[in-house]
Amino acid sequence: MLKKIVLAYSGGLDTSVAIKWLKEKYRAKIIAFCADLGQGEDLDSVRRKALRTGASNVYIEDLREVFVRDYIFPMLRANAVYEGSYLLGTSIARPLIAKRQIEIAEKEQAEGVAHGATGKGNDQVRFELTYYALKQDIKVIAPWREWPFDSRKSLIEYSEKHGIPVSATKEKPYSIDRNLFHISYEGGILEDPWKEPPDDMYTMISSPEKAPHTPVYLELSYDRGNPVAVNRKRMSPAGLLAVLNSIAGEHGIGRVDIVENRYVGIKSRGVYETPAGTVLQSAHRAVESLTLDREVMHLKDSLITRYAELVYYGYWFSPERIALQGFIDDIQESVTGTVRLKLYKGNCSVVGRKSPCSLYSPELATFEAEDVYNQKDAEGFIKINALRLKLGNLKKRRRRRI
């Protein structure tokens, strides 16, 4: 029998209903945990709402610096991007929330943990893989897989019937997830992949048409793979991300509209705003282009898809993700330098880069006269590398004669 359940609580539709439903079904005390990851909400009102809805206790914790330093920055060091477009803003938040949830469960001696993720989505996997990785005997409750409600519309009706205040409406029922790294929009009016999202839906990023007519130039400084300063001003990880969100968002940088493959096998249309992440992705690759050996960089790039899948699927605490991170972080020791970027009407362009660890040699790269590189040496290099091509062509010609 469960006496206490720790619920990952956002104050949104699903988790607001979940407090009342869990309390009625399990006759247990519900402890609500809300992580401040930079979602920009009035968390005092979230606390009051949780208590008013039936929670016996509420934890609200500011995890913004931890989120950026220990989760977002390691992911950015890997240049992780899922299916070519998605910068994993929701995916990377879940392991931190679930980890802290388990820690609270242990502190409160709670036997169970719960989340508001649906049975069709990725978040249920991300939460639960983390729960089990950190506490194998924990009881996991996923209301969406148990309760009688079959849609957000039915949840809205339930909340209205029981006087639970929620921000979603029947007219605007899409799901929104926000943190310091991004905002995601799914469901409702977005479920038709042919329809263009309404412009008034976006929150962080101006439309390129309404962005300033004059470009802005930024300098981002990196130290061992991590951004540390904007325009030579050093900042904390969360502070730096917030500043870049504001600048990049004003200039229309970072909107993405994709149909992605969920881990559970369903295709889903997602619309994302990731202004700072888009800028940091470009800048980091620019520093790496100067400082990483060619074969090391190509090896790392070949692992990006796998790393991104591990984050997207929920395997942040898996041995394979941790092993990959070790390799990535080891080669980031030389990824130090400064990148100059031009932001203009939705475009982020790298226009300059420099590094004290640069492997770039102007003497070797120049098309002008120089004494470092003997161009005649290229002849033997080409012939050796062409040998297998010659042999392959010779085989084909022999087959034609047979």
Question: What do you see in this structure?
Answer:
- The chain is α/β, with parallel strands linked by helices and 402 residues long.
- The protein folds into two domains: 4-71 and 90-172, 3-Layer(aba) Sandwich (Rossmann fold), CATH 3.40.50.620; 178-354, Argininosuccinate synthetase, chain A, domain 2, CATH 3.90.1260.10.
- Helix content is 42%, strand content 19%.
- It contains twelve helices and 14 strands.
- It has a five-stranded parallel β-sheet with strand order 3-2-1-4-5, with helices on both faces. It has a five-stranded antiparallel β-sheet with strand order 10-9-8-13-14, with helices on one face. A four-stranded antiparallel β-sheet has the order 6-7-12-11, with no helix packed on it.
- Strand 1, helix 1 (13-26) and strand 2 (29-36) form a beta-alpha-beta unit.
- Helix 3 crosses helix 7 and helix 9 (294-313) runs antiparallel to helix 10.
- 38% of the residues are buried.
- The model has no long low-confidence stretch (mean pLDDT 94).
Based on the model shown, name its key terms.
42% helix, 12 helices, alpha/beta, 402 residues, 5-stranded parallel sheet, 14 strands, Argininosuccinate synthetase, chain A, domain 2, Rossmann fold, 5-stranded antiparallel sheet
Compute the number of structural domains.
2
Rg, Å, rounded: 25 Å
CATH level-two architecture of the largest domain = Alpha-Beta Complex
Q: Got a strand count?
A: 14
Strand order of the largest sheet: 3-2-1-4-5
Question: What is the helix content?
Answer: 40-55%
Q: CATH homologous superfamily of the largest domain, by name?
A: Argininosuccinate synthetase, chain A, domain 2
**CATH hierarchy, class of the largest domain:** Alpha Beta
